[in-house]
Amino acid sequence: MNLQKKAVFFDVDDTMYDHLHPTRDALRTVLGLSERFPYEEVYHRIRYYSDLLSAKGGLLEGKAGQEELDEMREGRFILALQEFGVDITREQAVHVQQEYLDRQYRIESFKGATSLIDELSSAGYVVGLITNGLEEHQMSKIKAMTLENHVAAEHIFVSGTVGYAKPDPRIFEIVNERTGTLAEHCCYIGDSWRNDVAGAMAANWQVIWFNHRNAFPESDVSGAYKTAASYTELRRLLLPDAR
To answer: Which H helix or E strand runs over 7?
Structure first.
């Protein structure tokens, strides 16, 4: 076990791929919303309610059943859209969720994502994924992007299986235990301020906020972090000596 080895772990949703696309397409297909609708703003609120409802039900840690999962998935669309003056029925929310899931498994990783993973691996880094959600759902997305061809299976951590979900620092501590790494030698990259930035920093990891949506920090954090808005910028930060 080499505790001096450096590691880089990535979030999945809206970090490895554009999470807005399947959300927007599902809303447009089911509800017929116009192109001028503020999809990105709605997307942020859907993510907010997804985290809120999941935390209440212990969904991200795999502690709830299918009924609770369905209620969360449908409820997040209902609550988020209400804020923008769009009231939908439970049946419409079910349809949106079905369309959304179908598109979730037809996704592509951001340009430069897999090549960066490969470069980091070649440079000797431990490279992996840490993602919130249920094992089957998250692994379906990982396989849709063929990320299993670039990341070792033992370096993929899904909260529903681990038993702890970001921002709980214990999920990062478990990653350290299972990969034989130290927190101070690990860097986490993710888009969510609450889950990824605050969560990883609470575990004493280094953090790069993948802020490709120009979001604002949601809270104060103790410590420094870096920011990138593209995989080109991430590569410059992680592999400054590479050409």
So the answer is: strand 7-10
The answer, yes or no, to whether the previous bond of 167 is cis (omega within 30 of 0) is yes
Q: Which residue has 């994502």 as its token pair?
A: 113
Cβ neighbourhood burial of 29 (10 Å; 0-12, 13-18, 19+): middle
Cα dihedral 111→117→122→123 (10° resolution): 100
Q: Is 180 left (phi over 0), alpha (psi -120 to 50) or beta?
A: left
127 DSSP β-pair partners: 8
pTM surpassing 0.70?
yes
Asked whether residue 228 carries a pLDDT value surpassing 70, the answer given is yes
State the burial class of residue 92 (Cβ atoms within 10 Å of its Cβ: 0-12, 13-18, 19+).
Answer: middle
Residues 6+ apart with CB under 8 A from 2: 180
φ/ψ of 136, rounded to 5, equals -60, -45
Which value, in Å, is the radius of gyration of the alpha carbons in the chain? 18
- pLDDT tens digits for range 110-127: 999 999 999 999 999 999
User: How far, in Å, CA of 198 to CA of 185, rounded?
Assistant: 17
Please give the distance of CA 209 from its chain centroid, rounded to a whole number: 12
Three-state secondary-structure class, residue 124:
coil
C-alpha span between 75 and 6 (Å, rounded):
40
160 contact partners, CB below 8 Å, separation of at least 6: 59, 60, 61, 62, 133, 134, 135, 138
